[in-house]
Amino acid sequence: MQSVDIEALNQQIYMDSAFVERLNHEAAKVIVGQHHMIERLLLGLLASGHVLLEGLPGLAKTLAIKTLSKAIKADFNRIQFTPDLLPADIIGTMIFNPSTNDFTVRKGPIFANFVLADEINRAPAKVQSALLEAMQERQVTIGGTTYKLDEPFLVLATQNPIEQEGTYQLPEAQVDRFMLKVLITYPNKEEEREIIRRNLGSATFGQVNPVVAPSEILKARESVRKVYMDEKIEQYILDIVFSTRQPEQYGMADMKPLINYGGSPRASINLALASKAYAFMQRRGYVIPEDVRNICHDVMRHRIGLTYEAEAENITQEDIVNKILDTVEVP
Predict the structure, then answer these.
(1) For the segment 247-262, what is each residue's pLDDT rounded down to a tens digit?
(2) 174: closest CA among 128, 213, 236, 122?
(3) Where are the domains of the chain?
(4) CA-CA distance, 217 to 20, in Å (whole number)?
């Protein structure tokens, strides 16, 4: 690609991505701190990928996606996952109408632009599968009829990292459907002071205004895919993913006993697409290595399986990704 083309593309992306600042401004009216979470939600939205959030209760996970949906003039539904939930409670079912002596379709809460699947690991496998099928296919089937889900469509699933009793852990194949797994941490002392003041202040504080239309998000997704990625960056992404499968070939033979399985081809696709989306959010028309490194943990942490040896030595996926980023040659 000629440099003049990249310059023109850069200008085009700079204009197309102007709404990102508006969205961040609206989110900041309600959410204190948690910049990483907001950024990753926007990234998932722009890259058409779903997000799995892991964090303790009360860290504004529900509030964040609710705020985002208001700022984008989009529909929002929240599903609280419980052990007695059925697939029909999510996708919908056929209801008999006595007045017409016929069955009518009652659509479930999955029919929204933003769906919060709260504590997804509390529901049994059949319910998890119903949700994940809708995530993958972007459609659901009720009574033999297939219904397309509205775009943009983003599933934000949460799971609590400490309460594991009475939960159904997500299988690896299903976790792999999520583009990003984001770890949510506590706010710092100054942020928490601001949270207290806001919640004890005026009830009208932090009104969110719609600043982006869903059609703009769909247009932005097309722009994200136009962001230029050099062959050297592609090779860097491949080296990162392949080093989780064959660490000995990248000078990390000591890691082989620690990794049970590495990233799938979906990891390579998502790492490339998320890197483009991150570059777009930085209002840049091309991907640099720092974009890949910035989102690497969120894309890779749930795609690396640890052996018993790694768990015995208290080695985490974070440690492995850190080691890979320190070892694999940066273009």
Answers:
(1) 898 888 888 988 888 8
(2) 128
(3) 3-215, 227-327
(4) 10
